Protein: Actin-interacting protein 1
Amino acid sequence: MSCTLTSIFASLPRTTRGQPIVLGADPKGKTFLYTNGNSVFIRNIEDPSQCEVYTEHATTVQCAKYSPSGSYIASADSHGKVRIWGADNKEHLLKNEFQPFSGCIKDLAWTSDNQRIIVGGEGKEKFGHVFSADAGNSVGEISGMTKAINSVDFKPTRPFRAITGSEDNAVSYFEGPPFKWKTTMSNHEKFVHVVRYSPDGEKFASGAADGRVILYDGKTGERLSELGSPAAHTGSIYGLCWDPTSRFILTTSGDKTAKIWDITTGSAVQTYPFGTDLKDQQVGCLWSGNHIISVSLSGQIAYLNQNDQRPTRIIRGHNKSITALTIARNGNQGTKIFSGSHDGLVVRWSVDGREMNNVIGDNHTNQVQSLASNSRGLVASIGLDDTLRLINSSWESYDRMEKLPGQPRDIAISESNVVFIACGSAICMYREQQGILVTHPLPYEATSIAISPQGTQLAVGGKDNKTHIFNVDGTALTVLREIEQRDSVTRVAYSPDGRFFASADNMKNITLYQLPNYEPISRDMWRYHAATITGLAFSPDGKKLASVAIDTHLMIHQTENISKVTQVKGAHPLNPVTCLAWLDNDILLTGGNDCCLRKWTVKC
Structure:
């Protein structure tokens, strides 16, 4: 049996309030770069559903940029490491790794001859460094600032020049190579967040927390003019980039707008309003060929048009750990994927990942703990805000919310639209048609829950080292049997065809049972995970059982040949896998702490 990764539903950029993010543009105009966690995302700019992920950094990656030739990418992390790796091959082979200084690197840039790299950030001994991309030796000294560097850039034409923007409100100008300090411009009144040279090298611009954009001569560093009056924006400027002709500048700001400026007149020729919510602040931007991109504090990526204030496309998704996943099927609505994340967001995806929309309304205020659905189109979520929320029949928004008596752990939905929730030392049952919440107390703490395909039996995993099987009659529960386990039960699952039942315990054991008598089949055989199992799911035909765990691995077990197991180690590299769901008998989805969904093709 084989298990092959076929596509990735990519994370959005990770954002932090008050901090700019760095986007990188492919010189060939085909892809763009951003970071989230220890990953660098390479997305096709025309079709963002096409994505590659680089995951070789051991800590949080802060920025990534293409070399001017487009052959290499340099990425830098919060521990001060710079990795230079191949951009034009699937393996992304490492060329070099250097550590310019010890501390967080916030931005980097290449010289146009692909030979030198400048980095800036917050080191323990210095704030910037410039070095050879081949040997790592120093080619100058970046000094003259008294606080952390937020942004760096090189003049793209000879003679080379370097600029930095720092938290001492200054823009510093360097000549070289070897690069040495020439002058410092203290025209801003607050942190300088971004500095960028124009593509022709004739000018450069700085944007700062004071909302001002100042233009300088690219060869001398002399101040030329300022955009807007009295300032370009009423909030901090976090993003700034030039168009390919060096005539226009795109700026993004905490005032929840992006603007395009004509530098010959110093006035804005287009303003893009994004809303009034805090998450509508714009924290980064990119202008690559005909594509104009702005990124909001929510991580959403908006494609802009010079002739229209409204975005032509918005890329949505998660930028926090994905914690829950379900597949919803309905004759009228088709099949959709629902995923929930650590920040309480639920996203609805098309099967191919090309369309995505946030479920709107009264969202969870804390982590989405679990999602469930049935074949009648009912979708429900539970969260660590101790609530149950039902998504309406059109799958666009939340329909209703119920406060739960405790913190929920797991959820299941029967075909008769009864919602079952493992909630502390109780099972909560909610009948969707009647809107009634019934609580069934337990003498143990429930950890997981599953409903049989017929809706007549309910399995509840407990911290008492037992799996409890109940007969279900409406919302009345009667104990049918108790199955002893070796440790507390972490997950339970029924096969959709009604032939099998499976449970996983805290000792990483998975046991397969034959129904209807719950006779164990795989005891002492399925123990392949090295950490807590976070998800179990049967394929629709019951022939495969998939499991995922904190150990980053995915396992595919065969129910009719229990000695056969397919191991996918590092299914979500360096990140725990938190949830999974089968799209059909051969296609599996997994979600993890890398904020991505991954689609797998499983063939016997």
User: Anything to note?
Assistant: The two ends are 4 Å apart (CA to CA). The chain has a mean pLDDT of 96.
